[in-house]
């Protein structure tokens, strides 16, 4: 009986003594390891989501720019301008600026050309689009001497690449900056759009490149994705 009483007393003292210092240290180490793993997984997941979001935004921005520019170029046309019949479709052609005549968004029943300008702003690197409408002149001519500005917009997102526009002849020869005499020889325009909105979230920029032909000029249309 005495032994049984002593055994209960030892068990009671063991329960009252709690955990030892070694056990506490082991528990703290295990908790620290588990916390490190959980935090690492959380940070990795957050970074992955941020990267995916940045790439999605950059892709959308680049696509909007490419679609707008390609549509205008594809509808490029020569026009009978007062004082210069059959003026070339391209008016100004540089690596960062394109001014041209186009039938983009024109009425199929009563097509009217517009003058479209795409310029990359040297400070913000954003692409700016402006459109002007001509005045109708006699004998089927169009008067662009004092055109009316009908729209202006700036696309979001900086274009970080050097050359946005490269010009090509019907033979496929690239002409980076055509002279006035070469404007009528341009059959297609290669457009390159590079967008890298948040370099911290995504280390890889989004790059879209497309060669757009101008079938209204009578050249063979060439387009590559």
Can you offer a commentary on this structure?
By secondary structure, the protein is an alpha+beta fold. The protein has a domain at 57-213. Helix content is 31%, strand content 32%. β8 (165-169) and β9 (174-175) form a beta hairpin. It is elongated. The protein starts with a helix and ends in a 12-residue tail after the last strand. Keywords: Membrane, Transmembrane, Transmembrane helix. InterPro entries: N_methyl_site (IPR012902), Pilin-like (IPR045584). The chain crosses the membrane at residues 21-43.
List the helices and strands and how they pair.
Blueprint: H1 2-17, H2 21-74, E1 79-81, E2 84-87, E3 90-93, E4 97-102, E5 114-120, E6 127-136, E7 142-154, E8 165-169, E9 174-175, E10 186-195, E11 206-213
Antiparallel strand pairs: 1-2, 3-4, 4-5, 5-6, 6-7, 8-9, 8-10, 10-11
InterPro entries: N_methyl_site, Pilin-like
Protein name: Type II secretion system protein
Keywords: Membrane, Transmembrane, Transmembrane helix
């Amino acid at each position: 009986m005495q032994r049984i009483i002593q055994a209960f007393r030892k068990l009671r003292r063991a329960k009252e003594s709690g955990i030892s210092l070694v056990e506490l240290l082991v528990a703290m180490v295990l908790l620290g390891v588990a916390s490190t793993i959980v935090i690492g997984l959380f940070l990795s997941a957050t970074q992955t989501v941020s990267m995916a979001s940045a790439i999605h935004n950059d892709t959308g921005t680049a696509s909007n720019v490419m679609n707008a520019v390609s549509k205008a170029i594809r509808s490029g046309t020569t026009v009978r301008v007062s004082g210069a019949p059959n003026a070339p479709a391209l008016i100004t052609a540089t690596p960062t600026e394109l001014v041209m005549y186009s039938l983009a968004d024109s009425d199929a029943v009563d097509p009217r050309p517009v003058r479209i300008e795409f310029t990359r702003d040297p400070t913000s690197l954003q692409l700016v689009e402006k459109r002007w409408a001509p005045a109708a002149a006699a004998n089927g001519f169009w008067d662009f001497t004092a055109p009316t500005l009908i729209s202006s917009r700036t696309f979001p997102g900086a274009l970080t690449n050097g050359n946005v526009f490269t010009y090509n002849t019907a033979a496929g020869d690239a002409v980076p900056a055509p002279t006035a005499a070469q404007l009528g020889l341009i059959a297609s325009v290669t457009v390159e759009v590079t967008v890298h909105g948040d370099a911290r979230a995504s280390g890889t920029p989004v790059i879209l490149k497309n060669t757009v032909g101008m079938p209204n000029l009578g050249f063979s249309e060439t387009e590559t994705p």
